[in-house]
Amino acid sequence: MSALKRVQQWATFARIWHIYDATWQNPFKSAEVVKKFLMGLYKPIYHPLNDCGDHVIIINSGEIALPGDEWKKRVYFHHTGYPGGASWTLAWELHTKDPTMILKKAIYNSMDGNLQRRHTMQRLHIFPDANVPKSLLDNVSNQIRQLRPVPTRLDRYTAEEVASYPKLIDYPKDYIIR
Amino acid sequence: MVFTTAVNFIRARGPDELWRKRRIFKLAAHFIGRKRNCYSIAVRYVHRALVYATKGRKLKKLDMKDLWETRIIAGVNEHDIDYRTFRESLYRSDILLNRKVLADLAAWEPYTFKALTDVAKRRAIDDGLASINNEHKVDGIITRGALTKS
Amino acid sequence: MSNSHLFLKPAFITTPGQNGVGRYFCQLQRVVLKFCKNNGSSRGMREFIENKLIDFVKETPEVAVYMKPRRHRTPIIRAEYLNGDTQWVNARNFTEDEILKWLQLLKTQSSDKTGIRLRKLLHTDHPSVQGPWTPYTFRDPKLNLAEFPSPELAGPHVVETTATEELLEMYKNQQIEDVNEKRAE
């Protein structure tokens, strides 16, 4: 193989590092997006047997937003293997124990169960907040766009902004605000 | 069928045993363990293998179709157009390329593929197909439709 | 029907390369003729050795020819090539002319052509004119200067205006109108 072809090969199969901000994102829909980058499905050279998957860093996994009342209703099942070893954990419980777990499981479950899946998961780096080691952050050269815009919370607005916000109605004087 | 002699009632065993078995063993030559050496085991696995081969001929075509589609989707998403619009627009532009060729172009001749997506986008804008709006930048592609409209 | 192709060496179709562009180099290095001295199946081989072998060797001094007599076995031709291939030809009941033709074939080919299975009937060393796709082919150059994570790159691509934004826009327009009206007065 000539030097040019060798470099061509390196370029085509270069591992790209992507970063994804999970703030206010649905973890299950995000998983479908992140999966494509992890497995290399976004490359026209994709083949299940060629090693073209990329690295993805997910930040702010503690800030994910589950749809509806799934924090209370979604249950994660685990069995230790011993009799009576079954346990059921609600999503909010799991999230307080490990804020990266829901996203990690969502991505793991979004992929087909084959021998490649665990190796693909090795290329996923989830952080509960924005503190990423510099050695990892230096590799990043692309950012995955979020699925929906992040709204600003009411308590994050400054007093000035709240005051200058247009007022549609005035409450009647006898209206009681609880 | 009318049998005139009793000989015909005897079950026909076909060719000589050695050659009959040899035919099976030839197909089992690449198996591992007793299923390549013992006839009664080999013949079961050979029959199973032939069934798989028959099914596989159809599955291979489906698998290749899926793979090509994955690659084309990867290619078109890079240029902000979705697969269905892309294929429909190409068809409307009389560019009748099949999945195999499109996937090959996406991987091996990326600039040709980009030109195809530009043509498709132009056509999709002219025909008002879904998911394409005029804000998409399509430079340097002029079609008959674009000239008459504007 | 057989699966014998599974035992062959998979390879791509090739050309003999540049052999003969500058000078020709015979790819056949060694030939072993194995035969029996009295068995009838080796008769042609024995006649070949007697009548034509010396001429053959004089024509092709670059090939080492060995002879190996062995009792009561089928004659064979074993050819070894420069690339390491070993070809084995069963020469049972061959006439001397047939053996000569086989040797000519072995001498002129570049490797063992019967020991390979073609993976595809088409092959090229240069599959791409424009260069294969790389992650950098259509990369936005703006990303080279971006600091990651970047808030501009975080949000979704196409966002419809929300009701809140529309309301704020209306409010702003209204205020401008008010100011204009006041000025007009």
UniProtKB/TrEMBL annotation, chain A:
Keywords: Ribonucleoprotein, Ribosomal protein. One of its GO terms (molecular function) is structural constituent of ribosome. GO terms for cellular component: mitochondrial large ribosomal subunit. Transmembrane segments: none annotated. The keyword Chaperone does not apply. GO terms for biological process: negative regulation of translation; translation. Pfam families: Ribosomal_L13. Belongs to the universal ribosomal protein uL13 family. This is 39S ribosomal protein L13, mitochondrial. It comes from Rhynchophorus ferrugineus (Red palm weevil). The lineage of its organism: Eukaryota, Metazoa, Ecdysozoa, Arthropoda, Hexapoda.
Automatic annotation (TrEMBL), chain B:
InterPro entries: Ribosomal_bL20, Ribosomal_protein_bL20_C. GO terms for cellular component: ribonucleoprotein complex; ribosome. It holds the Pfam family Ribosomal_L20. One of its GO terms (biological process) is translation. The keyword Ribosomal protein applies. The keyword Ligase does not apply. Keywords: Ribonucleoprotein, Ribosomal protein. GO terms for molecular function: rRNA binding; structural constituent of ribosome. It comes from the Eukaryota. Belongs to the bacterial ribosomal protein bL20 family. This is Large ribosomal subunit protein bL20m.
From TrEMBL, chain C:
Gene3D superfamilies: Glutaredoxin. Residues 37-110 form the Ribosomal protein/NADH dehydrogenase domain. GO terms for biological process: mitochondrial translation. This is Large ribosomal subunit protein mL43. Keywords: Mitochondrion, Ribonucleoprotein, Ribosomal protein. The lineage of its organism: Eukaryota, Metazoa, Ecdysozoa, Arthropoda, Hexapoda. The keyword Mitochondrion applies. Belongs to the mitochondrion-specific ribosomal protein mL43 family. One of its GO terms (molecular function) is structural constituent of ribosome. The keyword Lyase does not apply. Coiled coil: none annotated. GO terms for cellular component: mitochondrial large ribosomal subunit.
